[in-house]
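Exercise 7.
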Amino acid sequence: MLLFRLCQLVVLLAFLLTGCVAADVQSDARETASNKVPYVSRLNEPQSNAYFHYTKARMLLAEDDREGAVDAYLKAIDYDPDAELLRFELAELYIAMGQLENAIRAVEDLLLRDPDSVKANMALANAYFGNNQPDKAIPYFLHVLELAPDKEQVRLHLAIAMVRVGDVDLASDQLKELLKRYPDSRQGHLVMARLYREIGLNQLAVEQYRDLIRRNPDVEQAYLELGLLYEDLQEWQSALDVFSEVLDQRPLNFALRHHISRVYVGMKRYDDALAELNIIVDLKPDDFDARRKIGLIFMEQKRWSDAVSVFAEILELRPDLDTARYYLGTAYERQSEWQAALEAFFGIDRESALYDDAVAHIGYIYLETDRIDKAIRFLELRIAEGKPRPQVFNYLASLYMSNDQMNLALNTVERGVGFYPENVDLLYQKSLLLERSGQHKDSIQTMKALLVVDDQHAEALNFLAYAMAVENRDLDEALGYAKRALSLKPAPHILDTLGWVYYRMGRFLEALKVTEEASLKLSDDAVIFEHLGEIHLALNNLELARAAFEKALQLGSDNVDLRDKLETLSDAL
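Solution. The predicted structure, written as tokens, is:
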């Protein structure tokens, strides 16, 4: 506070001394304040008072008293309302304090006095832009460009703001104008390429990146983004070529080697990926992400012992890494080394995001080692401890089902849905359990509730389509469900559902085509061959119908009606 009181004394003396002394006071204030040009006072009374409070604000900032500085700035502005510098510094202080609305109001006051102030319009545009209000920033950016058309950064920010509000065409126009004015604008080419990526015009994005690289071969960001674009498009060789070109110039760029290893994984060139990652580990032993990726590649290759060695070594160096402990447990589990796997999973901290995944694995290991009761008790205890993740409810319900305890399974899933009412896995399992318990209407309602949450859930669509076909009702709606399910997941059991819907609709030839295809892809499913027999029977293909029914019975169908039907058919032949 001593410095602040000395400042007050100096300013008061300035009121009594000559202009030369006042100039010395101003010089002292410059040295005390930041390297910004300070607000300059004249010696008439209001401005001198304004200068006093301005200096007070600067001293309070030096003492990190931001609230006091705001108050001092406001008093200075009261004495000299025409001083732009005071308002700009106040706005900057508000921004530093995270009070963007106050900053915006401070600049708006400037615009009321001078609507064509480039600096004020720019400050307000940036304030709105920084406050995630691009729609309000755009008019001020546009006005700045009217006043000063050659501001490159303003046009860039305007284009970005337009993208954020969905005006992609206008954003593109602004960027094209920028590149017309500044054809070598690095940032302009980058933003244009990103815009093309955003709207899915990937080839145009590639051309922009390539043009930027041609003009400025040293722009590393363009190489990186182009490589990532190729990677997203799964054009692995192109991505590898781009990343390798940069790596030739920067062989110690470990981020690039990580990118290249990921591309090799995409190409299934696992040995090459391992070579890149091992170079990283050799040169940078504390890169645990590279070590983790090596372990994951070993797991992808089913080299479980090698994976165990990698994750065990990571844990020796970093015992706190729960991800390594989780993967170590998984690798042991895949080798049926149950006790080692349990020790790894039990070592995961209860506060870890992976804890509930570990709990599910522990339950699975107990089940695999004929300790289902212990698995159930363990998962029940986890649920009793608090709000576990959805998979714990799901897995416990599965254990109850395998133990033929359907009521407990359904109760567990319903408890899970109570915690997570929009979890599609829990809703789907609940619907199946209701169906198995004979509560058909409730099952259908639950499956429809699931589709409200996720209308792209192929199995839910298939379930509803098949249920309607079995009941021979709402067949047009059932057909829509079945086709949507098949487009999302072209699986043979969904083909069978579509065939059965066609059969119920009397469209037997269409039914035959898709059901035959399903029987080829799922040749051990008794229900599909039973359906195929019914379709052949409807088409009067009696020999083929009998063959399909016999196949269904061979696959284990215990359908008494089917046996009777086959006997009748054999007699007819």
